[in-house]
Amino acid sequence: MSLKDIFKNHPVKEEEPEPIPEVPNRIQGKIYYLHKNGYGFIESDVIPQERIYFHWKSLNHNTRKFAALVKGDIVEFSPRKYDEKKGWQALRVKVVEND
To answer: Please, what's the b/e burial string for 2-28 (b: 16 or more CB within 10 A of its CB; e: otherwise)?
Structure first.
C-alpha cells in the first residue's frame, strides 16, 4: 500500500489557525531579558502572556547600542507575528525611557 492510498483513506484534518490578535502599529513594552549574543525579550501589556523577541539589528539607528540596554528599559517597537511556534518579534525598537 502506498502513502497516497493511506492518505486517500484517512484524509488529514485541517485545523483552523488561531486568529492573530489585532495590535497597533507601535506599542511600548519593558525589556525583560538581554543576552550577550545580541538578542533579548520584551514584555508588553498589549500582547499579554507572551515575550516578544528582538535582535540588536532591529534597534532604531537613533537608539544607543545594544550593550547599553538595561533590563527594565521602556522601549517602543513595531510588533510582528513571526509564526505560531516562534511567536512575536519586535521591529524598529527605540528606547523611550531608562529604568
So the answer is: eeeeeeeeeeeeeeeeeeeeeeeeebb
Q: What is the rounded distance in angstroms from the CA atom of residue 88 to the CA atom of residue 52?
A: 5
CATH node for 23-97: 2.40.50.140
Per DSSP, 68 falls in state: G
Contact 62, 75 (CB under 8 A): no
- d(Cα 4, Cα 98) in Å, to the nearest integer? 59
Q: Where are the domains of the chain?
A: 23-97
Give pLDDT tens digits for 5-23: 655 665 555 555 454 556 6
